Amino acid sequence: MLTRVDGLAEELLDFLKGLTAIPTVNPPGECYPECAEFIGARLKDFGYEVQYVAAKGRPEHTAQHPRVNVVGALSDLPARPLLHFNGHFDVVPVGAGWTVDPFGGLVRDGKIYGRGTTDQKAGIAASIYAVEAIRRAGVQLHGCVEQSGTVDEESGGFAGVAYLAEHGFISRERTDYVIITEPLNVDRVCLGHRGVYWFEVVTHGRIAHGSMPFLGVSAISKMAGFITEMERRLGPKLGKLQTKMPVEPPGARYASVNINSITGGQPGAGIQTPCVADRCAAIFDRRFLIEESVEEVRAEIRGVLDELAGQDSEFRYDLSDLMTVLPVSTDPASALVKAMASAVRDVIGDEPPLIASPGTYDQKHVMRLGLVDQCIAYGPGILQLSHQPDEYCRIDHLMDGCKAMALAAMRLLGASGG
Hints:
Strand content: 15-25%
Low-confidence stretches: none
Order of helices and strands: HHHEEEEEHEEHEEEHEEHEEHEHEEHE
Structural class: alpha+beta
Shape: elongated
CATH class of the largest domain: Alpha Beta
Number of helices: 10
Strand order of the largest sheet: 1-2-7-3-8-16
Distance between the termini: 8 Å
CATH architecture of the largest domain: 3-Layer(aba) Sandwich
Number of domains: 2
Radius of gyration: 24 Å
C-alpha cells in the first residue's frame, strides 16, 4: 500500500500545484466556485458522487463572492461506518515578504511553495490521494469514505463546515469519524482545541475642541483606563490558569487575552480636526481553557467594566459578543485516535504525540453542531509556516501524511483484497 502511494507522487504533486494556483483568498472569498469545481472534478474522476453545496442564507454568501463547498462520496461502499475527510481551501491574504510567486506552486529543494500549501491545501490533496491509492491497489474498504473541501475556515467556518453540519452532511446519524487535514505537523495527532471569546468594547466620551479638552470626555482615555485595569486584574490570574490539555506550543497552555484592534477619534490620515474623541472601539481575543466556562469568562470582563462605571460617572461603555467557540477534545482512547496514531507510527517510525491546538479550527463545528464525537486533526505541513510569507509544504511530509491517512482509513473501516 505504501509503495502505491509513492507511485502517485507526481500526480499528487501536480494536483496540489493546481490547487495552489487558484487564489482562494479570504477575505473576501475569491475563486471559491472555481476551486470547488477543481476538487470536484478530481473526485468524479476517482469514482465519487459529487455535490456542490452553496451556503444559501448565510450573509457572506453573495453574488460577488459565493460560498460554495464540495462534498464527494464513494457510492460503491457500504454506508457505515463512514469516514469523512475534510479540508478548507480558503487561504489568508498573501501579505508582504514573499520571494516567490504565492500562487505559482514552485517546487524547489523538496518543497512546494505557495499561499495555502501548508494551510491547508496539501491536506486536501493528501486525503484524496490516500483513498485513491487504496482503490488502485485493489483493496476493498468495508465502509464509506467522504471527502469535503470547504470555505471560510479562516473567518470562522460558518459558511463551510458549520453549514454542512447544520444541513446534515456531517452528522452523528450518518458520520462515524472525521479527520480534518489541518497542518499540525505530520508526526502528531491533534485531539482538539482551546476556546475563544471575541468581544468588542466601545467607550463613549463627549466631543469638544482639542484646545479645550477639559470641556469634553475622551473615549480613548476611558478605553486606556479599561485596558490598564483589565491587565492589572486579569493578567496575573490568566498567567496562572493552565490547562491539562496537551496544547502545543506549551506557552499556549495558559489562558490569554489579546487586543486585536483599536480605533477611536478622528481618522489617522487625511484632513485633521481638533476634537476630543467621543468614541473608541476595541476588539479583544480571549482564549480560554476547557477547565473554564464561557459564562465565567464573560462575567469577569463585565465585572471590570461595571466596576469602572461604578467608580467614574463619566465611564460609559457597550460590550458586544462577536464570536464564541467552546473548547473541544476527542477521547485519546477512541478508535479514531488509536487508528490514526498507529498509522503515523508505522509511517514515521516514532510514537506520535497527542496534542491540542492553540487556535480553533473546524472541529468545533463537527463536534458542537454535527455532534460527531470522534474527530481529530491530522495533516501534512509545519504549523508555524501557516500564514507566513514563502509558505511551503515539504514534499516528504505530503507523502508521509498521505500514507498515514491511507493506513488509518483501512484500519477504521476494515479492508480486504489487494
